[in-house]
Backbone:
C-alpha cells in the first residue's frame, strides 16, 4: 500500500526489476502546465547506468512512454501515466535469491513479508531500477517548479569519505555542479572516480553522501507537524534504496552547537527579510522561511559485491556461503543525484499544491 | 492538513500552547486492547517540565482527560480522544511575537503562512507543548506493542558533544537507561547536566542527539518505498520540534564504509536467522529483518535564549534588536527522549496494523 | 479508521453517546476565516432534540466548547477542535444491549465487530448524537461557503409518504423553508406533524426523505471519478445514521427517462451559460456546471419503538423477545435536515480547497 | 487527485478515451493470491461493447496487459499495474467538443475545470471507456472475495421502466442471472431489448436501474461513520459515469415505512443469527450483519443521441444547435452490470483488508 506518495498530488510507482515494465501514475496535477520532453529525457539520462565508465555496463533504457495525462505538450488535468518497458536483463545473474538472501539487499525481508511469493529477480520491486519512474515524476515536477522560479539542484558531497565543497548555504551555486560528474570541485571529482575504480577492481563498493538545495521557495510553504518540509522530504527520500540518513541545514552538527551559535538572526537585505546565517536550512517549524533549503542524504555502499559472503539457506535453515555474480555498480551515488532532486521536487510541488492560504490581515 | 499521521490508524493532534486545551484523537485502533493508566501517566511524566532541576521551572500539567474510546480499561473500537487543559501560562512572556519573530522559532514562517492570523502566543501550534498529546498516543501504542513482545527505548546519545555510550546494536540494553536521567553511563549523565547548567547560567542553550532502539519486531513489518520503516519513522519524528536529522543503523557513517564493511552477513543463532553485524539498523528495503531497529535523532539547541538577538519588525520592515524574556529550557533533549519513543511507537504500531499478509507458500 | 473524512481538510469525529464527551477536529482550514458563534449555535439548535413538541423530550445540550483553532473570531490556521460534554443521560434505558441487540440498530454488528468490547450504551459511537459534532464542522463550513456566495439549504421532502413541495430545480427557494418546521408548504408540515404524533402515540416511528440544494457553486468544482461531487456527498451523507438512499438531480427517475428527455440543453441567460432543465442536479462528470446542485436523502424510521420485537441472546444463541424502553424520537427527519446541510457543506468546502487549477488557455 | 480509491488498498485509474492507453494500478494487495486470467477475461468481456447486437458496433478491445504485480499466476505483493492500449477509435466523430459542449456529457464542466486544456476527444478521462480498468481491478477483487466465500452478482432491475424480478433479499439467486442478457426473467429481458432497439431506431437512448447483491460477507465488515459499507460503495459507484442514484436495502421505500415495518427482527436459523426480513440490505451502522447486502443503482440514459440539441459556443457565448454524430450505445445498462459488480468488489475487498480486529472477550 505504500508505493504511493502525496496529499494533493498522488504518485503511484509500480514495477519489478525483471517484470514487463516499470512506471508511475501522477494524479492531481492541474491542467495547462507545459512539459518539455527533451529536458525530461536529459534529466532521466543523468540517472541511467551505462552512460559513463564509472558506472555499470548494464545498460538500462530510461525512455518513458506516456500513456495519458498530456496533450500537445501540456498537462490535460487527467492522471499522468508513464511506463518504461524492461528489455535489457540477465535473469541468470539472480538465481537462488529465493533461498539464499544476499546480505544488504531486501531479499530476506521481502521473502518473509510476502510469504515466499515475491518476485525476487533483480531485487523485484525493491530494485534501484524503480528510481527511474520516480525520476519521471520528479523531472516533471522540477520543470513546473522552475516555471514558478523554484530551482532544485544536488551534487555529490562525499564518496568514501572523499569530499567535494559544500554549497554556500546563503546562495547555493547550483549552476556550478559539473554536468558530467556532479561535483562542484572537479579535482575532488577525480579523486572520487579513482575511489570508485579502486572499489570496482576489488569487487567491492563504496557509499557516499549527496547534498541538495532548493532555491526560490517562497515563505510559508509546508504544513505543521507531520506535513512539514522535513517530514515530507524525508518520507520520500527514504523511499530511495540505500538511503540511511537524511539531515537538514546544519543537520547532526546542531547537536554540538549552542543556541546563540545555531539561531539564524533576521536581517533586512535589499528590502527583503533574510537570515544572517542558514543553520536552519531554510526551514522553521517545517515551513519555508525564504532562505535556501538544504539537506544531505547518506547512501550506503551498494550491497552487491563480488567477495564471498555469509548467508543462510531459508529452506535448510543453515549457513551458506554466497557469491553474488553479475555486473554491478561499485557506487550508485553519482546516479542517485538526480533521484534525490526528483524526490525533493515531488515533495515540494505537493506542498505547493496544498497551500490554500489566501486571507491576509490588513 | 498535516497535524494528522497514519495509514491504518489516524492520529490527529490539535491545540495551541496558550489555547484552551491541547489534545489528540486516535482512530482505527482495534477494540479489546488493555490500557494501563498509571503506566501511561508515568510515561507522560518523563516528558513534563518542572520535574527536575535540569529543566524549566515552568510547570506543565500533563494529565490527560480521556473523552472517548476507552471503556473499563480497554479500547472499545471507537476513536480515542484525550485532552489536556492549559492552566499554567504566562502570556506576558510572549508579547510582540506577531511583529518581531524570534530567531530559530516558527514565529516568522507561521506568521507569513497564516496571513497574520496565527495564534502566536507561546509558539501556538508549533510549541513543544504539542509533544504532550503525541506522547499520549505514543504511550498507548508503546503498551500495545509491549503486549506483542515489541519494546521501544531511547536514551540521550550526546548533549553539546558530550557522549553517552551507544546501545549495543546486537542487543540494545533498554533496561539499563537511567530512570532519573535517561543515559546508560551515569557519569556521562553528570557531565551532560553540568553542560546544561552552564548553558542556563549563560542564558544560552545546548542541543544534542537521541538514540532509540526497537526490539522484538518480527520480520516483514514495513511497506515498500514510501511506507518503509525509515520513511514512516522519519516522517513522524520530524514532526517533533527542533529535529534536524534522522539516521538509521550506521547512519551517515555508511558514506565512508565499503560494501564488504557495511553488509550485514546472515548467520544462524539458536535456530533463528540473524545477522553478524547490524549496520542496517534492523531494516532492509524499508522492512524489518528481525534485528534490533536503531535510529538517531539530532535536536537543535532550543531557540529561546536570553542573549540579545537580531530580528526584524514585520510592520516596519526594518531591523530590531530582540531579547526573549521568560523561563526557558536550556536543553530539551532529556525531555524529548520519551517523545522520540512515542513517535516510533505510533509509526511501528501503524505498520503492524497495515500488515495484511497471510498467505505462505508451502 | 473511518470516522475521518476529507482530502484537503481532515474532519475527525469522536465520542460515544454515554462517554465523557463527543467532539470533532477539523484540520487543514486556512487561517483568517471569520466565525460567527451565534450563527453557529443557531444552526446547532436546529438539530437538538427537546426543542419542540414533535421531538423527544430527552434534552441534549449542543453547546460546543472550542479548544483550539480559533482566535478572536477567526480561524488561526491550526487544527480546530470542539467538544460537547455529555450530561443528560439515562443509562438505565439501555441495559442488556450487549446480549440482546435491538433490531435496526448497530448493536449486533458493532458487538461482533469489536469482539464484545464496544461501548454499547446509548448506541455508543453509532448514536445519532454523533451528528452534533458533524454539525459543528458543517456549520463552520456553511459560513465559509456563504462568504464565497455559496448557499446550502434543505427541507423535508416527505414524512411517511406525506409530501412537501419540491425545490424549483432552476432556482431553489432556500429562504422559503420554514424556520420552525423545515418545509416549504406549511400545510404539508401540519400533516407531517400529525403523522409523527400518531406514530408516537402508537409507540412506532416513521421515516422520510430530505431534499437539499446548493446554490452559487462556480463551474468546475469536483474531481474526476471517485472524487466527484456525488461520490463525496454520498460518502459523507451515508455517515449519518439511518440513511438508506442518496440520489442526485432527477435521481432514480432517470431510469425511466429517455436521453432526449433527460439531457439538459445549454442556453444563454443574461450573458451566462445555463441549462434549460436541471435533471443533472447541477453535476456532470462529478463536476459542477453552475446550475443548482440538488440531492435527496432517504432516512429509515428510527429503530427504537415500543412494540415488542424479536431478538436473540448472543450468549444463549436463542430467541428472545425484546422491548425497548425509554424516550425516543418517533421521527428524526426534521432534526436531520441541518445534519444533511452540514454534511454537504463539509464535502463541498473540501472540494473547494482541493481546486488547484489556475492556468487558462488564452 | 481523485481517480484514486481505497484505504488499505489503493486503486489508481488513468487514461483518456483517445489517449495511448487506459489502465490501473492496484497497490496494497497481499502476496500469494491466485489469479485466473481466463476468468478475468470472461468478466471483462461482459462489459465490452460490440459483443451483442443490442450495443454499439464500436468494438473495444478489453484485453489488458499486466505490467507488474503478478508472478506465475499469483500476486507477488508489489503493486499490480495493467494497461489496455486504445486502437479502435474514430476521432472524427468528436470534432468541435472543445467549443460546443454536448448536453449531458462532462464536456462543459471539464472544459472549464481544466482551463481549456482538457483532452476532450471521446469524452477524455470522463468516458465510459474508463470503466474497463475499473473492471480489471474489480474482476481481480471478485476472485479473491470468492476464495473467501463472498460472492457478488448483479442484474438489470429496470430499463426504461420495464422491470425484471428483484433478487430474493433473503437469498439472492445470483446464479439465475442470464449469461447473455443479465436478467432473472428472460421475458422481461426481451421486452427490455425491444425498448433498446426502439430507442436506437429513434436515435434516442434509455436509462435503467441495476440491482447488486453480496452474499457470504461475514458479520462485522465495515468501518464507522464515513467508512461504512454504504459510504464506500456509494463513493466508488458514483465514479461510474451516468450514475444518479444509489440506495441500499429497502432504499427510498424506507421513507414511507414505519419502524415496526422496517426493523428486521433477529431470529435463529440452523444455529446462526439471521434476520426475519432484510430491509436493512445486510448493513447496520455501516457494518455487515451477515444477511445479503443489496443495493440498487440508477443510471441515466446515455447523453449521446442523434436528435438535434441546443448547446452554446463557449468562444462566442451564444446559442448553437448541435447534432452528435457517430456510433453510440442507446443503453449502457446491460454493459454496466459487471462494472457495478467490480466497484462493489473493490470496496468490499478494501474493507476486508482494513479489518484489524482480533481480540474477543472471553
Residues:
Amino acid at each position: 500500500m505504500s508505493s504511493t506518495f502525496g496529499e494533493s498530488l498522488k504518485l503511484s510507482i509500480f514495477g519489478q526489476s525483471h517484470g514487463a515494465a516499470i512506471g508511475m501514475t501522477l494524479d492531481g496535477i492541474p491542467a495547462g502546465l507545459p512539459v518539455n520532453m527533451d529536458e525530461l529525457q536529459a534529466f532521466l539520462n543523468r540517472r541511467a547506468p551505462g552512460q559513463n565508465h564509472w558506472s555499470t555496463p548494464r545498460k538500462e533504457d530510461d525512455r518513458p512512454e506516456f500513456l495519458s495525462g498530456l496533450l500537445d505538450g501540456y498537462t490535460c488535468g487527467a492522471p499522468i501515466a508513464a511506463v518504461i518497458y524492461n528489455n535489457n536483463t540477465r535473469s541468470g545473474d539472480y538465481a537462488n535469491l529465493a533461498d539464499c538472501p544476499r546480505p544488504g539487499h531486501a531479499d530476506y525481508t521481502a521473502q518473509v513479508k510476502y510469504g515466499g511469493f515475491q518476485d525476487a529477480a533483480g531485487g523485484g520491486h525493491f530494485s534501484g531500477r524503480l528510481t527511474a519512474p520516480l525520476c519521471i515524476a520528479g523531472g516533471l515536477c522540477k520543470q513546473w517548479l522552475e516555471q514558478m522560479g523554484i530551482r532544485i539542484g544536488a551534487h555529490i558531497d562525499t564518496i568514501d569519505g572523499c569530499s567535494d565543497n559544500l554549497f554556500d548555504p546563503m546562495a547555493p551555486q547550483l549552476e556550478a555542479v559539473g554536468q558530467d560528474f556532479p561535483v562542484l570541485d572537479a579535482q575532488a571529482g577525480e579523486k572520487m572516480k579513482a575511489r570508485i575504480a579502486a572499489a570496482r577492481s576489488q569487487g567491492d563498493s563504496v557509499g557516499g553522501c549527496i547534498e541538495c538545495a532548493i532555491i526560490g521557495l517562497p515563505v510559508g510553504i509546508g504544513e505543521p507537524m507531520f506535513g512539514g518540509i522535513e517530514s515530507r522530504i524525508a518520507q520520500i527520500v527514504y523511499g530511495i534504496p540505500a538511503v540511511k540518513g537524511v539531515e537538514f541545514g546544519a543537520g547532526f552538527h546542531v547537536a554540538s552547537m549552542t543556541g546563540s551559535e545555531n539561531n539564524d538572526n533576521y536581517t533586512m537585505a535589499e528590502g527583503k527579510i533574510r537570515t544572517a546565517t542558514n543553520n536552519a536550512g531554510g526551514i522553521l517549524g517545517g515551513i519555508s522561511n525564504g532562505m535556501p533549503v538544504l539537506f544531505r542524504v547518506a547512501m550506503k555502499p551498494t550491497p552487491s559485491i563480488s567477495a564471498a559472503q555469509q548467508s543462510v539457506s531459508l529452506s535448510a535453515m543453515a549457513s551458506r556461503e554466497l557469491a553474488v555474480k553479475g555486473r554491478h555498480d561499485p557506487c550508485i551515488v553519482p546516479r542517485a543525484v538526480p533521484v534525490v532532486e526528483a524526490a525533493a521536487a515531488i515533495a515540494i510541488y505537493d506542498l505547493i499544491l496544498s497551500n490554500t492560504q489566501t486571507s491576509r490581515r490588513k
